[in-house]
Amino acid sequence: MPSVALKDRVPFGARGPLGIVVDPMTWRAAPYLLITGATGIGWFVVLSLALPASLTLTVVWVGVPLMMATVLMWRGGAMLERRLMHAAFGVKIADPYQSRPERGVGAHLRWLLGDAATWQDLGYLLMLLPLGLVETAVSVVLWFTAVTLIIQPLLMSLWVAAGVYTELTIDSWPGALVAMVFGTLVFVLAAYLVRGMAWLHGTLATVLLGGSQEERLRASRARGIDAAEAERRRIERDLHDGAQQRLLSVAVDLGRAQSKFDSEPEEARMLIAQAHAGTKAAIAELRNLARGIHPAILSDRGLDAALSGLAARAPVRVDVSVELRERPPAAVESIAYFIVAESLTNMAKHSGATEASVTVLRDHRGVVVDVWDNGIGGAVVCPGGGLSGLADRAATIDGVLVLHSPVGGPTLVRAELPCEW
């Protein structure tokens, strides 16, 4: 396994100057921060014109559709910002809006204006002006200063070669080399500030664009209910198609054996043997089903033993590290187990990995589960897919699932599971 610490593979989790500079996420965030000032000015101008106009015209009928168009416009802008947050900062924010009504102008107006997320969107877009101007100003000054200082030796060589003599502050090779070194330090400082501003911007965007806490909890509970219903259907299907069919076959074989016991004892004996084999197969089916619901080793010995068992059955070497001073709640243990199980299954099927690791630790927020592999990457969360189901499991206790799987690998699945909810 690579020597880099597992926690350093998390998006925006690089440590050290070199890690900060070479991390692709830094260079995704830098362009966004350079233009966010212009974005803030644009939204401020548009909203400053559209809002007063639509409010003034509400006294006549034309103001109503204009108001709806204005609200839909800023909601569309907020939806675009959520996508940009994911692309630039790696922060995934789901749209928190209430369900759209089927018909009726009045119903649509109440839907637009009565949703708290609508006004939080407006607050975020207006906040872009001061925040964006600061981010853009800091970014422009630092990047311009760093690049200007770093290229001083190149400028010196061009000036000397061209025979140009001007009154420059830096007019010697030693001065140019010192400027290049200082510019490199400013360049690293700029990368750090990009990460800091990206973290601050992403945090504010999560608070404003992610909806209220009540709405997030409601969505989390809804996803939990859907996940529980899907699990119930899976168990019902497995029972019907597996153990139930085997037991039905056993009953038929025993009935035939009973009818032939006196007339054809040899055939009856064969049918009984067949029923015996079917019974053992049904028991195995039920055992596997019970393990899928909740493995006994998890209840008896905890996560360390249960995850070690999963790692032993994996087709590649999996390093397991569980750092828990005390056992977390049973729900957290169960969700952590199934997240690791599904992640390792996906790894075996799709990633082509040759090694993997599982790390479970406790921090101030709860239990953090990391599953890493060195496969080809490219994993995505699709509705109805396995990773989506894991996110739904985590959501039942207000947990969060984060996937980092660039094309070419590696892949990291991180689950943050609170121990209180």
From TrEMBL:
This is histidine kinase. Its EC number is 2.7.13.3. The lineage of its organism: Bacteria, Bacillati, Actinomycetota, Actinomycetes, Streptosporangiales. Residues 32-209 form the Putative sensor domain. GO terms for cellular component: membrane. Pfam families: HisKA_3, Sensor. InterPro entries: HATPase_C_sf, Put_sensor_dom, Sensor_HK_TwoCompSys, Sig_transdc_His_kin_sub3_dim/P. SUPFAM superfamilies: ATPase domain of HSP90 chaperone/DNA topoisomerase II/histidine kinase. Residues 231-296 form the Signal transduction histidine kinase subgroup 3 dimerisation and phosphoacceptor domain. Keywords: ATP-binding, Kinase, Membrane, Nucleotide-binding, Phosphoprotein, Transferase, Transmembrane, Transmembrane helix, Two-component regulatory system. It catalyses: ATP + protein L-histidine = ADP + protein N-phospho-L-histidine. The chain crosses the membrane at residues 32-51, 57-74, 137-161, 173-194. Coiled coil: none annotated. GO terms for molecular function: ATP binding; phosphorelay sensor kinase activity; protein dimerization activity.
